Amino acid sequence: MRERFADSDSFSRIRPKGGPRRGRRSDRFDDFEPEYFPSAAALPEGFDDLAPAVSDGPAEGDRWSTWDRSTPTEKGPEPRPDWVVTELAAVDTELGIVKTGKEADVFLLERAVPGTGRRTLMAAKRYRDAQHRMFHRDSGYLEGRQHKESRITRAMAKRTAFGKEAIAGQWAGAEFAALCRLWSAGVAVPYPVQITGTEILMEFVGDEDGAAAPRLAQLRAEEADVEDLWEQLGRSLSLLAVDGYAHGDLSAYNILVHRGRLVIIDVPQIVDVVANPRGLSFLERDVRNVGAWFVSRGLPEDRVEELVGSLAADARLG
Fold first, then answer.
1. What does the pLDDT profile of the chain (318 residues) look like in tens digits?
2. At what angle do helices 301-314 and 226-242 cross, to 10 degrees?
3. pTM score, two decimals?
4. Contact in structure between 213 and 256 (CB atoms under 8 Å)
5. Which residues, listed in sequence order, are joined to residue 264 by a DSSP beta bridge?
6. 108 and 121 Cβ atoms separated by less than 8 Å
């Protein structure tokens, strides 16, 4: 079921919805044990003839919805969009892989209520385990972040197996918290649905048939309204700066464009530009990195420097 692209950074569907599945299911699905659907072994004596009708998993899909496995603080901000499926009778079906990365993979997931028209597509971002993650970004972005337990902080610093697991959990938690904060502030980010462990479910930015939106870097010249996209980007970065933050790793590769709408993704490393001693440099680097794409498509270079100055003022750094 998890066929992958040769280009590990590619954003697109692996197989069409309803296509054949190969290989075993995701470990995320295999270890799911619903609490309210007993196995046949748990049936009272004398009800053995009902055993064939009882199953631990749903009749269709890969797993029961995990909505009830998240606490209120592990669910997205209210008011929630109408498309969010919260019914406990819903089932989740994995439809393919959207993107692979060094630290996490993004899968396409359908959550639907069987027998009804209630259905939504989501992106499931799953941070990798200690054996398969690369922590090339940790040192700079984790500066100033400490765990409440000193032993965990020491393990993270030493990059032990336990420490890497703790870092994975911290990255997932940081990204979910950032998405919630940014969404509530009006920044153009995917709506965060819920987090369970190191899996984040969020808005899928793309078409209803599962075709993912292209990254800004993949946008063809005739598809790009450079001026409008720059204005959209400036508004979101300004909202970030007013709140005291910078993306921290912004480029044309972590911005999606869907039908003219610009959406910023990959935000686990957002930087507190006031508390972080290198906050201003992160803010400036963000603007210049993505600004290079716009300048190559006709945006005057002075517009980039204007935005740098404006954001510094918004963050009260200049």
1. 434 333 434 344 444 444 444 433 444 444 434 333 333 444 455 544 444 444 578 988 999 999 999 999 999 999 999 999 999 999 999 999 999 988 899 999 999 999 999 999 999 999 986 554 444 444 444 444 454 445 544 544 555 555 555 565 688 999 999 999 999 999 999 999 999 989 999 999 999 999 999 999 999 878 889 999 999 999 999 999 999 999 999 999 999 999 999 999 999 889 999 999 999 999 999 999 999 999 999 999 999 999 999 999 999 986
2. 20
3. 0.76
4. yes
5. 255
6. yes
Closest of 102, 26, 114, 34 to residue 62, by C-alpha: 26
Query: Is the backbone of residue 235 left (phi > 0), alpha (psi -120 to 50) or beta?
Result: alpha
What single-letter amino acid sits at 80? R
* Nearest alpha carbon to residue 262 among 290, 283, 284, 242: 290
Report the 10 Å Cβ neighbour count for 50: 11
User: Which three-class secondary structure string do you get for 70-81?
Assistant: CCHHHECCCCCC
- CA gap 318, 310 in Å, rounded: 9
**What's the token pair of residue 72?**
């209120």
Are 180 and 155 in contact by the 8 Å Cβ rule? The answer is no
As given in the structure block, the two tokens for residue 2 are 């998890």
What tokens appear for 218 in the block? Answer: 């993949």
